[in-house]
Design a protein that fits this description.
The chain is an all-alpha fold. Helix content is 90%, strand content 0%. It has one domain.
Length: 29
């Protein structure tokens, strides 16, 4: 049962990283 929350958290971190990268790209452009 430890895997489910961990997977959800990892997915949230990935989405946050993608959003951060997109914002950074917009700022640099």
């Amino acid at each position: 049962m430890i895997d489910a929350p961990y997977a959800a958290n990892a997915e949230a971190v990935l989405l946050q990283a993608q959003r951060f990268a997109a914002v950074k790209k917009d700022v640099e452009a």
